[in-house]
Structures are given as structure tokens and as C-alpha cells.
Specification:
- By secondary structure, the protein is of the alpha/beta class.
- Helices cover about 60% and strands about 15% of the residues.
- The protein folds into 2 domains: about 40 residues; about 90 residues, no CATH class.
- It contains 6 helices and 4 strands; from the N terminus they run αααβαβαβαβ.
- Strands 1, 2, 3 and 4 form a 4-stranded parallel β-sheet that branches.
């Protein structure tokens, strides 16, 4: 008797999973169609990639952590960030902590140094107010 109930419950769960997954699959299809880059965007990307050296392409795969507290331009920390952006041509920055104004200022300074626009990301694992002070 218990075996029959288990089969029945399992069948209901499988049917429910199928029914619930259909809208999610449709949403993925819709989002893929909605946000497809234009031909002009693809052409611009191809043109940029053709101009890049192999070192620049490798650098685009690397992202560095950034503590966005105040950093003087003459400090060892700023010079290291600058070296990573200019010499190593990193592709992005992951902000881990800092104030709103300090983060904006330092990210803008790094973006200005970069030949190719940086991908900026933030580690909000502990909540945005704990990472970007003043953002909560």
C-alpha cells in the first residue's frame, strides 16, 4: 500500500515539475530573442577583436579585486591598480568594499586608464549596504 502511494506522489511531483518548467523554458526563449545583439554590434565587436593583440585578449579574461576606499595617486595600491589596467590590460574590476563616492571615483579613474572598457562587477554576497557603504 505504501509503495502505491509513493508511486502516486512521485508521479504528481514529476507532473508538477514539468508544468512549472514550461513557463521558465519559455521565459528563457523570450529573453534570448529580446536581448539579441544587432548586426552592427556584432560588427563593432569583431572589429575591436581584430585590432587586439593576444595579450589584450588574454587580459580581457582577467578581473581584479578592488577595495574602493580612498587611494592616493602616489600610493603603492593605486600604482598597482594602474599597472594591472594599463600594462596587463585586465578586462574588469570586482568591487568588494568601499563608499559610494570612493567607488564611483576610483572606478571612473580606472575606466579612463583602460584602452578597452572595463566590465565592472560587485560582490554583493553580504548585501549591498555591507559592500558599498551608504548604498543601503
Amino acid at each position: 500500500m505504501i509503495y502505491n502511494k509513493s508511486k502516486y506522489i512521485l508521479a504528481i511531483l514529476l507532473i508538477a515539475q514539468f508544468i512549472l518548467s514550461v513557463p521558465a523554458a519559455q521565459a528563457r526563449v523570450d529573453s534570448q530573442q529580446k536581448f539579441r545583439p544587432s548586426e552592427k554590434a556584432w560588427e563593432g565587436t569583431d572589429k575591436t577583436l581584430r585590432k587586439m593583440t593576444i595579450d589584450e585578449k588574454i587580459g580581457q579574461l582577467v578581473h581584479i579585486g578592488l577595495n574602493a576606499s580612498f587611494v592616493n595617486q602616489e600610493s603603492k595600491e593605486f600604482k598597482e591598480l594602474r599597472r594591472q589596467i594599463v600594462d596587463n590590460k585586465v578586462g574588469g574590476i570586482i568591487v568588494s568594499v568601499g563608499g559610494v563616492c570612493e567607488t564611483e571615483h576610483l572606478v571612473n579613474r580606472m575606466q579612463a586608464l583602460a584602452k578597452t572598457p572595463l566590465l565592472i562587477s560587485v560582490d554583493f554576497g553580504t548585501g549591498r549596504g555591507r559592500v558599498i557603504v551608504g548604498a543601503a
